[in-house]
Amino acid sequence: MARYFALLRAINVGGHIVKMDRLRETFESIGLSSVQTFIASGNVIFESKARNVVTLANRIELRLREALGYEVITFLRTAEELAAIEAYLPFGTDDLRLPGNELYVAFLTEGLATEAKKKLASLENPIDSFHAHGREIYWLRRREAGESRFSGGVLEQAVGMPATIRNINTVRRLVKNYG
Q: pTM above 0.90?
């Protein structure tokens, strides 16, 4: 059995409140095992014999839509993929260590096309820097430089696809605790 991480969009934001026991039960109802949740922001860890992640994500999304009554886009990563995402260094260590700077990871269903990368680059400013790698976008936010106007909605509009964003500390804790 393979271990997967489901990073869900639209869980416990925008009025969509979901209890973690209900979320675990929903995943278990489609035959997934060793289901656990991590913080109440839509991080589900589970095991499955399934090898086709697209089909698996579609099954999860369908069941979540049935159970919750709204679309929940599911971004699946294996334990190995999540460890590689956590270990990747998109920016210099000096940038990452400066007080107030924060690193986020936006999870996508597919890598960015050239045009989407150009649109993403056009969003860069003294506060926000971006780096696309694989099916992820790394976002460095420099708080000391001011307040960012960047958001998940701005990102989705620029790249033309849905995304869900996690702080790198959440990704690290997922890898450490469940990887």
A: yes
